[in-house]
Amino acid sequence: MAIRMGRRRIRASKSKKKIFFIAFIVFLAMLIQSLFFVEQKMKPTLLVIAKQKSEQIAKEAIADAVTKKIAQIDMDTAQVLDIEKDKDNKIRAINFNFQGYSKIMGEANQRIKNRLKEFENEKIEAGVPLGLATGSSFFSDAGPKLPVTFIPVGSAKTWLDPKLSEAGINMVMITVYLQVEVRLQVIIPFATDQTIVTTSIPITNSLVVGEVPDYLYNNPIGKPEVPRMQVEPPAK
């Protein structure tokens, strides 16, 4: 009797181990299938979301770095642009001031270069909830956060871009923007891709009194008798 009871216990123990092993295999198979689904079906969506997150962080960081430097310089529009008027006080042309242009570009480029170097050294990471890839607002915050890493690729491109807008009768508002373009390598656990981040940062503005020809602003083709003005960087 004791021998039979011992055999039954051994068989029951083996049966439990077998059930546990089968359950583990099924769980592992489901896990692999789920990961395959995420990779094949959700990867494009997650990559787009990861790019958007990286662009947001990069834009905020670059804008913060540049504006802090500009505040230290106390930049004035007259330091960047030369405004020519005729005898009737009408604005004839707007050109870059070489000295001011070189100064602002040098300072901005150095600041952006340093910030990008920090990105490269720190390998900035952000989290994206896995549920966002479902496209459902109900599951947007669900699931674990997918780590997103991005690093800069190459050097940033920068240039100044003055914009003119009407500000009243015979008045124009001139705002000078620093345009920045950066290429980033965005990395998520099972995919990687590059994205180009562009941001426009206002660095100075000025209200100019004087009659302004229509072809200087709000007119992409200019008047027939006057070609559209192009503001180019000063020749080096």
Description:
A hairpin with a 2-residue loop joins strand 4 (145-168) and strand 5 (171-188). This protein starts with a helix and ends in a 27-residue tail after the last strand. It has helices spanning 2-73, 77-80, 98-122; strands spanning 81-85, 91-96, 125-129, 145-168, 171-188, 191-209. It has one domain (18-226). The protein is built from three helices and six strands. The chain is elongated and about 105 Å long. The chain has 236 residues and is α+β, with helices and mostly antiparallel strands. Helix content is 43%, strand content 33%. A four-stranded antiparallel β-sheet has the order 3-4-5-6.
Instruction: Output the strand order for the largest sheet.
Output: 3-4-5-6
Task: Tell me the number of helical segments per DSSP (H or I, 4 or more residues long).
Answer: 3
Distance between the termini: 104 Å
Number of domains: 1
Give average pLDDT, whole number. 72
Low-confidence stretches are 217-231
Q: Give helix and strand order, one letter per element, not per position.
A: HHEEHEEEE
> Helix amount, in percent?
40-55%
Quaternary arrangement of the chains shown?
Answer: single chain
Largest sheet descriptor: 4 strands, antiparallel
Shape verdict: elongated
Q: Using the CA coordinates, give the radius of gyration.
A: 30 Å
Task: Give the strand content.
Answer: 25-35%
> How many beta-strand elements?
6
Structural class per helix/strand content?
A: alpha+beta
Organism: Brevibacillus laterosporus
Transmembrane segments: 20-38
Protein name: Sporulation protein YunB
Pfam families: Spore_YunB (PF09560)
